[in-house]
Design a protein that fits this description.
alpha/beta, 11 helices, single chain, globular
Length: 443
């Protein structure tokens, strides 16, 4: 009876509306499309239901005093998020991979329950990440099947309504004990009064031992595991980083961070998290194989002899989680995608449509003949060397830094041109926004 009466509270009623209306519509259209989506949507539905149960308990309970209690309470949710990311990684060859990625990139938005003091921006950030793959779905199916367009709208609506809900009811973090002060723990023993602010984050050894590894191939899974280990109090210890200490603004600092050994000390959570991600960059059996019309190159490290020679214009090349390697692609292919690679050099003859970098670092690419478009997304360090026949190449960039285009001249020499990273926007005549590179930024 108490549970039913609590469901009439606005904080629960509005979350139920998201689940029972907007998510239900998204579930129905996902099952209609079929393929891998019905299985994926089962994970999503269980996750939202688990969060509904968690919020119901949280608003009538005292906030747990230990990270272990919090981990137990959120375990059903973290399990489903891990399963969603793993399922996407397992089906990278699926024709619905962009659909699966739109979900798995956006689903960590439900980790807002561990974010304070401003959880709503976290949801917005995850929504933007999902939009990247949602746009790919729109591009592929806009003229083919309007059902997929509606699918994109429904998913983005789910995330948008979740953002509005959290902004309204949990502005500074999850609202514990707003409608009661029961014990939220499973042990049943009475809890003492709320303690002072929690201690600093655990050491790197404790952090690494407490995370799970259901799918090393998914950075989103690693993120959720790290959050689970830290508990809800971790964000309260974070300080604003000044510009002089930001890696993307100081190449020398980034190189120092990359090259220094990992110390098992009680340093910042940021250092531990970056080191953990770097050490797991390649975490699967190396592969270089033609699967249908797709060349798959993945999990190679320290290789300088990787070559793809038997190509045609229908072939695509997908390079995933390679590091410290050089890849040569001979002949004309349809497209080349590099995903989550670090310090990889690629030389290719020609591409019909585009070359794309996603979530990469310290990349170099040389065009021998021609490519119409090079797209750079969420990448730090990308140096492009054009040929004399590829000077009309277009560049599309977003959320990236340290990008240069090297144009040939003379006898084998190149002139470097940086791609702007900072822009100035003005409203002209009160009607039109005009954006130009910011000259004071040194571009």
């Amino acid at each position: 009876m108490a549970s039913q009466s609590n469901d009439n509270l606005p904080v629960l009623r509005d979350f139920n509306t998201i689940v029972d209306s907007t998510l239900a519509s998204f579930t129905a259209i996902s099952r209609k499309i079929g393929g891998e989506l019905p299985t994926m949507i089962d994970y999503v539905a269980r996750l939202f239901d688990a969060q509904r149960q968690f919020i119901r308990k949280a608003i009538q309970s005292k906030k747990p005093t230990s990270d272990q209690q919090i981990q137990e309470l959120i375990k059903p949710q973290s399990t489903e998020i891990e399963a969603i990311c793993a399922y996407t990684n397992k089906n990278r060859k699926s024709p619905l991979f962009n659909h699966l990625s739109a979900i798995s990139e956006g689903i960590p938005a439900l980790g807002w329950i561990l974010v304070s003091p401003t959880p709503a921006p976290h949801i917005r950030e995850m929504s933007d990440a999902a939009q990247f793959y949602a746009n790919r779905v729109l591009k592929e199916f806009k003229e083919k099947d309007p059902t997929h367009v509606e699918w994109v709208k429904d998913w983005m609506k789910v995330l948008s309504e979740l953002h509005a809900y959290v902004k309204q009811y949990h502005t500074t973090g999850l609202t514990w004990g707003a409608h009661g002060q029961h014990d939220a723990g499973a042990g049943g023993a009475p809890q003492p009064p709320l303690p002072p602010p929690p201690p600093p984050p655990p050491s790197s050894s404790a952090l690494l031992s407490s995370t799970t590894h259901a799918d090393d191939g998914q950075s989103r899974t690693e993120l959720m595991n790290t959050i689970n280990a830290l508990g809800t109090g971790a964000a309260s210890h974070l300080k604003k980083v000044p510009n002089e200490l930001k890696l993307h603004k100081n190449p020398q600092l980034r190189e120092q961070t990359t090259n220094q050994p990992v110390e098992q000390s009680n340093k910042s959570h940021t250092t531990t998290s970056n080191t953990s991600s770097s050490s797991k960059l390649t975490s699967g059996p190396p592969k270089l194989a033609l699967e249908g019309n797709k060349w798959v190159v993945e999990y190679h490290s320290g290789r300088s002899d990787l070559k793809i020679t038997d190509t045609n214009m229908k072939h695509t090349v997908y390079i995933f989680k390679c590091s410290n390697s050089t890849i040569q692609i001979q002949g004309k292919v349809n497209s080349i995608v590099l995903d989550q690679c670090t310090k990889v050099g690629i030389q290719f003859t020609s591409a019909v449509s585009l070359v794309e970098f996603i979530n990469c670092r310290s990349m170099k690419i040389q065009v021998m003949e021609h490519v119409p478009t090079i797209q750079i997304e969420k990448t730090d360090g990308c140096h492009v060397y054009l040929s004399k026949t590829s000077l009309d190449t277009e560049f599309i960039t977003s959320k990236s830094s340290e990008m240069t285009v090297n144009v040939p001249f003379g006898d084998g020499e190149y002139k470097e041109h940086p791609i702007p990273e900072q822009f100035k926007t003005q409203l002209k005549g009160g009607k039109q926004l005009v954006t130009v590179p910011n000259e004071s930024a040194g571009v």
